[in-house]
Amino acid sequence: MTMLYRRLVAMHPYSFRQQFGPEMELIFEESGRPARLLADALVSLNRQWFLRSRMWIVALAALVGGVIPFALGFGLIRAAGGRLGVAPVMHRHLPPVPPHTMSPPSAEPFIVLATAIAVLFISGTMIFAITWFRYSQQRRRA
Amino acid sequence: MQDDLSEFLPLSPAILHILMALAGEERHGYGIMQEVSRQSGGSYKLGPGTLYDNLQKLLEQGIVEESTHRDKDDDPRRKYYRLNPFGAGLLTAEIGRLETLFRKAKTQLRKAAI
């Protein structure tokens, strides 16, 4: 139990465990309620990483960076649906175009484009979030 | 001063209990936990994670400070914390705020009873 608690304390952000880690371990040794303290350490671990260290901003940026290009790519493919040989729902009742009059272009360029936009967005938002996160940490230390 | 304090108010229950525990004397972490439990009659218990998370915030905001006090038979890992004048002012302001709130609540209840 003590080893597990020590591991949980060691997983806290560096500045927190430097300042309070040894005393947390001491309290664990002195207190007779290991299960309750383990649960408390788990809650504290989440709070320190996701709230106090503002890592949630990076996580949110990654999520937004993932959703925007997905939506863009989906929109692009949907807009070009007819030309890609995938008939949009509202055109289903129209008579089919004879195959010799129009040959659908390949979906490959659109997929490549959507992937490129996705990669650009995800990297851009991650770089921005990490830079901002580091900058705010420096300001807090100053 | 009042304007400076208003941005910290209202205090969360954990912070209020910690400040109350430190109001009488400087204490180490485990001492704060025991005092909080004693003050609340055992109904409110702080774990070390919650305690140090709040203490970190209080230290950063300059409400609580680390003391150099050590008992000779203390474990070297033990640290003592105390309320500084700003923290004492903040606790006084919060108690004043709560007193006003209770007074208003009592008046409302009396009106409701009529």
Total strands of chain B: the figure is 3
Unreliable stretches covering 5 or more consecutive residues of chain A: none
Percent helix of chain B, as a range, is: 55-70%
CA radius of gyration of chain A is 26 Å
Quaternary organisation of the protein chains = heterodimer
**What is the helix/strand order of chain A?**
HHHHH
Question: How far apart are the first and last residues' alpha carbons of chain B, in Å?
Answer: 40 Å
Main pleated-sheet profile of chain B: 3 strands, antiparallel
Could you tell me the number of beta strands of chain A? 0
The assigned structural class of chain B equals: mainly alpha
Outline of chain B? elongated
Task: Specify the number of helices of chain B.
Answer: 5
Of all chain pairs, the largest interface belongs to: A-B, 24 and 18 residues
User: Order of SSEs of chain B, N→C?
Assistant: HHEHHEEH
Q: Which value, in Å, is the CA radius of gyration of chain B?
A: 16 Å
Q: Looking at the structure, what is the overall shape of chain A?
A: elongated
How much helical structure, as a percent, in the residues of chain A? over 70%
Q: How large is the share of residues in beta strands of chain A?
A: under 5%
Summed up, the helix count of chain A is 5
How would you characterize this protein structure?
- Chain A contains five helices and no strands.
- Chain A has 142 residues and is an all-alpha fold.
- In chain A, helix 1 packs antiparallel against helix 2, helix 1 runs parallel beside helix 3 and helix 4 packs antiparallel against helix 5.
- The mean pLDDT of chain A is 77.
- Chain B is mostly helical and 114 residues long.
- Chain B has five helices and three strands, in the order ααβααββα.
- Chain B has a three-stranded antiparallel β-sheet with strand order 1-3-2.
- In chain B, helix 2 packs across helix 3 and helix 2 packs across helix 5.
- Chain B is elongated, with a radius of gyration of 16 Å.
- Chain B starts with a helix and ends with a helix.
- At the A-B interface, helix 2 and helix 3 of A face helix 3 and helix 4 of B.
